[in-house]
Amino acid sequence: MGSADSKLNFRKAVIQLTTKTQPVEATDDAFWDQFWADTATSVQDVFALVPAAEIRAVREESPSNLATLCYKAVEKLVQGAESGCHSEKERQIVLNCSRLLTRVLPYIFEDPDWRGFFWSTVPGAGRGGQGEDDDENARPLAESLLLAIADLLFCPDFTVQSHRRSTVDSAEDIHSLDSCEYIWEAGVGFAHSPQPNYIHDMNRMELLKLLLTCFSEAMYLPPALDSGNTNPWVQFFCSAENRHALPLFTSLLNTVCAYDPVGYGIPYNHLIFSDYREPLVEEAAQVLIVTLDHDSATSTSPTVDGTTTGTAMDDADPPGPENLFVNYLSRIHREEDFQFILKGIARLLSNPLVQTYLPNSTKKIQFHQELLVLFWKLCDFNKKFLFFVLKSSDVLDILVPILYFLNDARADQSRVGLMHIGVFILLLLSGERNFGVRLNKPYSVRVPMDIPVFTGTHADLLIVVFHKIITSGHQRLQPLFDCLLTIVVNVSPYLKSLSMVAANKLLHLLEAFSTTWFLFSAAQNHHLVFFLLEVFNNIIQYQFDGNSNLVYAIIRKRSVFHQLANLPTDLPAIHKALQRRRRAPEPLSRTGSQEGASMEGSRPAAPAEPGTLKTSLVATPGIDKLTEKSQVSEDGTLRSLESAPQQNSAEGSPAAEEPSQVWREQRRLSNASASGQWNPTSEWVLSWKSKLPLQTIMRLLQVLVPQVEKICIDKGLTDESEILRFLQHGTLVGLLPVPHPILIRKYQANSGTAMWFRTYMWGVIYLRNVDPPVWYDTDVKLFEIQRV
C-alpha cells in the first residue's frame, strides 16, 4: 500500500475515534488495528495527522476510548518485546505504537485527573505474565510500558546486531538473552564496537524518544520546594525491576562519549556522509541526564574508598541510591574509563570552537547544554571522577569551551540557563586546589573570542572573560556576580603570575564596585568588594613573587583603596551618593577599563533574536547557601568552618569573613530592597566598613609607593618596564601582617540547586525537541515559556 493511502486510512481512524461517542470495545481489533497494523507513517506524519485539539476532545468527550487506545498500544509493544519482533510487520507495529504514544502521552500528563491512569492496573496483565486471572499481581500500565521499551532496546535485528551465525540458527530467545553482550558502543565496561547500523540507530532513537516522553510527566508538575518528589517513571525504569538497567546505562553513556562529529577525523567529511548518529547521541544524552535527576543533597551517595575490583563498577562501596543509573555512575572508577568519558565530553564541548577557526570543517553539534549537565552530574555524583579531571591539565579542555560559551552567551537573554550551569561547574571545580594550580598553564590556543588580546595563562583568560561578563553582560546576570568572584577568590592563592591585562581588569572591577552609589544602592553589593579585596590579599600574601603586574596595578590605582578606607558613613553623604545614582548610567560602564582590540576573527556577543523562545528558571540559592566555607591547613588539607563551634570571629577566620548573623541580617535587608524598600543607614555602612580587609594592601602601599616615587624622580622615569623590574625584585618579607589562613568556599549540594537543575534540564529538552514538537503547546507547569 502506498504511503498516501496509509496516511489516509490512519487519518480516517483518527476521525472515527474523535467522532465516536460510544465506547469502542477493547476486543474490536478491526477498529484498533487501523492505528498501527497496516500503516507506514513517520513520526512527523503522526504529529500532523493527530492534532492536539482532537486528542483533548477524545480525552474530554470519550475518555474510555483514549484509555483503550493507550492500553492497546502498550499491549502491542509488550507483544513485540515478548516475540522479539522477527518480522518486518511486527517491527512496523512497534514503531507505529511508539510514535502514537509519544504523541498522546503529554496530553494525558497535562490533565491532573489522568495522572494516575498509567499507574492503575489493567485486568489480566499479570506480573508473572502467565496468570490471566491473577489480578492481585497485575502490573500498572506504566511498568509494562517501561519494561517493554527496555526489552525492545536490546532486540536482535531491530535495535542491536544479531549474534546468530546463520539463518538456520533459531532466533535468539529474547528472554534468555544477556543484554550485556549487546551494549551499543565500546567504552566503559565494554570493549567491542559494533558495526554502525543506520536502521538500528533510527529504531533506538524512536524508542528513546518515547522513553523521554514517559519521563516528561515531571514537566507537568509545578516546581516543588522539596525536590524529594521522585519521578515515578524514572524511579521504576532505573530500579532492579529493569533487567537491562546496566547495559542500557552503559550503552547511553558510551554512545554519547564515543561520538565524533568530525567524521572520524577527516575535515569536511560530514558534507559527504549524512550523519545519522547525531540524533541518536542527542536523544541518548537527554535520556541519560533525566535518569540522573537525583537530589544528592537529600540522599546518601556512596562514599569513596580506594578499593577497586575487576569490573567497571566499584563493588566495594556500600550500596548507593536506589536509582541504579546514579549508582552505576557513582561507582565507575577505572582510569581508562575516566579518560574515555573526559576525552569524549571535551571533544564534543570543543566542537563549536573548532568550528570558528575552520568554518564548516566539522558538523556543528547543538547539544552542549545537555553535555554540561552530564559533566556536572559526573562530578557531583562521582568524586573519583572529579579528582581525575583535576589531576592533569585535561581539565583545561573543559574550562576553555565553558569560558567560550559564557562569553558568547553573555548578551543573550534566552541563554541565562547556559550562563548559570557554566558558572556552577567552575564553582564546583574551584573548590579543589588543583584547579587553581592548573590555571597557571600558558594559554596558547587561539580560539577567536570577543575579548581583548592578551599573552598569559588560563587564569588570565578566566579573569578577562569574567570581567567581560560583568561589564557587558545583561542585567539578569547580576545574581551570578557573587559566584564569579567566589571562583576567583578560590583560585587566587595559587595564581603565580597574572598578566597586566588581567590585573587591570580586576582593578577596574574594584573601581566599579566601590563607587559610593553602587555600594549603597543594594544590601549586598559590598560583598563584591570584600571578595575582590580577598583576591588581592591572597595573591599578595601567597604569590607576591611573580605578581609584579598586579602589585603595579594596585599602586597605580591606590586612590581606590584610600577612598574605601575613608568611605563616608553619615546619612547626608549616603543620600547624596544615591541621588547621583539616579542620574548615573548603567551600573558598570566600560569607562576606565582600557578595552584594547578584540581577538581577530571574533564576533561580538549577540543578543537573542527577537521572538526567541526561552523557558523560565527558578531562582538559585545565594552564595552563602551554595557554598560551605573551609579553611586550608598548613598541610594543604581542608577543614570545614561550618560545623565548627561558633568561634570568636577575630580568631582563626580572615577579616574578610563576616559573622554569619551579619549575612543573615543582610539577606533580610536585601529581600526588603527587592521590594523597593531599601534605605541604607549609617549603622549599616559602619557594620561592614569596619571589617573591610585593607590592612595588607595599606601596608604594601606604605612600603612600596615611596620607593616607586623615588625611582621615578631619580631617573625621571615614566616607563613602566623599569618600575616593573624593580617590583619583580622587591620583597615584602617580614613587612606584611601575618598571612591569614586561606579560605575556600566549596560548592555544597542543596535542594535549591537540585530544583534549579531540574527546571533547567527540562527547559532545554522542551526547547530542543522541535521535530517532532513533542511538548509544544501543551500545558507544562514546571516552567513558563516566554518570548524574548
Tags for this entry?
788 residues, mainly alpha, three-stranded antiparallel sheet, two-stranded antiparallel ribbon, 32 helices, 51% helix, elongated, Hid-1/Ecm30
Largest sheet: 3 strands, antiparallel
Helix content: 40-55%
Report low-confidence residues grouped into runs of 5 or more. 124-133, 300-310, 589-593, 644-667
How many strands appear in the DSSP assignment? 7
Q: Mean pLDDT, as a whole number? A: 83
**What's the arrangement of strands in the largest beta sheet?**
5-4-6
InterPro entries: Hid-1/Ecm30
Biased composition (Low complexity): 297-313
Pfam families: Hid1
Protein name: Protein HID1 isoform X1
Characterize the structure shown.
InterPro entries: Hid-1/Ecm30. This is Protein HID1 isoform X1. Residues 297-316, 579-678 are annotated as: Disordered. Residues 669-678 have a biased composition (Polar residues). The chain has helices spanning 3-19, 29-32, 43-49, 52-61, 63-83, 88-109, 141-152, 198-215, 232-237, 245-258, 277-291, 324-331, 335-357, 368-381, 383-391, 396-409, 416-430, 433-438, 458-472, 481-491, 500-513, 516-520, 525-542, 548-556, 558-565, 571-583, 623-626, 660-674, 682-689, 695-715, 720-729, 751-768, and strands spanning 121-126, 138-140, 613-615, 627-632, 638-640, 743-747, 785-787. It is mainly α. Among the domains are: 1-124 and 138-158, no CATH class; 392-583 and 590-640 and 681-706. A hairpin with a 5-residue loop joins strand 4 and strand 5 (638-640). Helix 10 crosses helix 11 (277-291), helix 11 packs parallel to helix 14 and helix 16 (396-409) runs antiparallel to helix 17 (416-430). Residues 124-133, 300-310, 589-593 and 644-667 have low confidence and may be disordered.
